[in-house]
Amino acid sequence: MAVIRRAIQSLGQRPKVLEMARVDKTFNGNVVALQHMSLTVNEGDFISLLGPSGCGKSTALRLLAGLSHPTAGRILWEGAEATGDLSVVFQEPTLMPWATVAQNVWLPFRLRGQSYNSVKDEVLEVLRLVGLEKFLNAYPRELSGGMKMRVSIARALVTNPRLILMDEPFAALDEITRHKLNKDLLDLKAKIGCTIIFVTHSVFESVFLSDRVVVMAARPGRVIQEFPIDAPYPRGEAFRTSAEYAAHCRAASDALYQAMGEVA
Length: 264
Hints:
Radius of gyration: 18 Å
Structural class: alpha/beta
Number of domains: 2
């Protein structure tokens, strides 16, 4: 089976997945997107990168995905420089409109030269996980925005990656759909035990999803504050309306307000 539950150890015993060590990224010789960006990611983390627009959150994800390279500093994957075993979910679903749901999910295997028949069980399994097993022969034009994003998430999950990078995947969705997919994402993480780094502008989303919120400052982008969200999983609507949630949101809002005033 493609999607396997990983055993996640207690917080103090989690092995390191990667480390960003004083990473800089400069574009066109003078636009400093990131400066001295440092971050440690452990097995089973759900980390949200929270910060104002233009602070380099998406740039950091692109570096981790191997889509760009640091100008200075190092990204260490378990002691070596490599992109590792990861998948990326972008803000837009980026589905092939001419392909069915099943064919879109099959794409990572297809790029590896594996036939659909050889991996159809894995495709069907992950579609069951995201609740779309009845839509495997549908086309993207027949799906709602939330369903399209579920297909994109299924495509990211199907190869059973150790790390999933998510770049504001729910930003364009309405609030009700966004809340539903937030809960579904936590349920999926509990089932497969992966590690997630999630970019968002939303204080409320970061607190609901994460066990660690990393706040970044702009001009240039860097980590200015990191704090744990120690509320237990699973989390539902009761957590959203709790005093504990409100307190964490206030702390995150204060950190974000500070980040907006931070200029190197």
